[in-house]
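Table S2 (text version). Query chain:
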Amino acid sequence: MPGLRYMFVLYVEDAAASARFYAGILGRPVAEQSPVFAALALEDGTMLGFWSRHAAEPKAAGAPGSAEIAIALADAAAVHATHDAWRARGLAIAQAPVRMGFGPSFVARYPDGQRLRVFAREAA
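Corresponding structure-token output:
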């Protein structure tokens, strides 16, 4: 559909804190913010939104960490460098860098429980 844009929304405890966190690790500025909602514009125009769990209507269901945001990088060196940088920032690492069926990957967790997978796809 022409002109179609996408927004993915995470239900979080504190929308502003989540937006600051993701802005810092993704290097993207906060594009929208209200007391219970915030969003970042990603490179392709897709939006990543954060809606305070207590304000979402209808009420947000599901446990934190039941989905993940995956970030594709160019190669294994970039995956390892990002892992080291995020660990230095204090992010909880749920899975250290490991070679999976699709390539090198690691998983970090945001305090609300979201999983952040960083990977590099390797040719099969």
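Notes on Table S2: The beta strands are 7-12, 30-33, 37-41, 47-52, 68-72, 92-100, 103-109, 115-119. Residues 5 and 44 are 9 Å apart (CA to CA).
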